[in-house]
Known about the structure:
Blueprint: H1 11-19, H2 22-32, H3 36-48, H4 51-54, H5 58-70, E1 82-87, E2 90-95, H6 97-106, E3 110-119, E4 122-126, E5 133-137, E6 143-152, E7 157-163, H7 164-174, H8 176-179, H9 185-188, H10 190-206, H11 211-219, H12 227-241, H13 250-261
Helix pairs in contact: 1-3, 1-5, 2-3, 2-5, 6-10, 11-12
Amino acid sequence: MVDLVRREPTAVAKLKMVMNEESVREQFKNALAEGSSLFISSLIEVFTGDSSLQSCNPNLVVMEALKAATLKLPINKALGFSYLVAFDGKPTLILGYKGYIQLAVRSGQYRFLNAGVVPEGMKISHDFLTGEVTFSGSETGDPVGYFAHLELLNGFKKTLYWTNEQILAHARRYCSRSLAKPKSAWNTNLNEMATKSMLRQLLGKWGILSVEMIAAMNADGDFEQTPEEQLESKVQYALLTAETLDTKSPDEDVEGLEEELKPAF
């Protein structure tokens, strides 16, 4: 007996329908050229392996993935450059610290760029006038703080140091959504997230702010944005993708793009 009941497509099937749309594939091709097919395959693999993402609107998943594609950052979790994460049923692009390093390296302006843990036992010295921070002593022990350091080819250099308390205060202020989730990276991999925050602070204030870097900082959903920052994010994304910026609200933008990317199901 033939089953004539029409079954609802699975979440993965819906995503594949979206990705099979010519207009969608064209956007990824414009961003990645020959690498677009590999990126699309990676997106489907990430989506298939994440039940939280599968509960999200597939059109919105594609929109977040396109941000990573435009920045030319892979979303494979094992690589650590960027991630797609579901927050309260909405997909969100999260950059890893390797993503920030990658974007900085592309500028060709850095002699050195480093960040990481400062272990207990190290002596930390600050020069009040120059802002220089130096470290000496043992490199063993539990983390007491985190550092980030850059030196440009023109000789400019800057080092930041934050204590554990400063890092957590920063996370509570700007990353409260992640902190509220027991399985988020802030709660399962503090060192990596703290390193990323230090790099973001260092590069944002003293690094080379290319259009790509600014767009990445604004697109990083790990940090809650004010309405002003959301508008700045739209501006930078428009510059990066050479698209025309309109004055619609973010919700209206989503609705418009959803209609444009709507699959036939």
